[in-house]
Design goal:
One of its GO terms (molecular function) is DNA binding. The chain is of the alpha+beta class and 117 residues long. Helices cover 41% and strands 10% of the residues.
């Protein structure tokens, strides 16, 4: 069974990593914004469909890490680095804002981050 509080913390970590709001996160995975709100507040637990939508849209999210906290986020891709894909974020207004963010995490706890606006 999924621990709701721990799942919520992992969900927030994903949104922080991509620097996106809950509303934009909901839009990206194709669920109603209220679904995210209810999960974040602890009112509802995530369905399998909800979890699979996250892992299909955000390829860096490991299914086992998301469900039970085992594994890594972002996914480990070699002996000493983790994956990080470029991210494009569109604002909700008429102006489009593109952000490209690349982060490389190392097993010693350090990381390199690159941002392009």
């Amino acid at each position: 069974m999924i621990n709701g509080d721990e799942f919520t913390n992992r969900l927030k970590k994903i949104m922080d990593y991509y620097a996106i709001s809950a509303a934009l996160f909901a839009d990206k995975i194709g669920v109603q914004r209220s679904s995210i709100s209810h999960i974040l507040s602890g009112r509802n637990k995530p369905s399998l469909d909800f979890i699979l939508k996250i892992t299909s849209v955000f390829e860096e999210v490991d299914l086992y890490w998301l469900v039970d906290g085992k594994g890594h986020f972002p996914k480990l891709v070699s002996n000493n680095t983790f994956s990080s894909a470029p991210l494009s974020v569109e604002s909700s207004n008429a102006d489009e804002k593109k952000i490209q963010r690349i982060v490389v995490f190392y097993t010693d706890g350090t990381f390199d981050e690159y941002m392009k606006y």
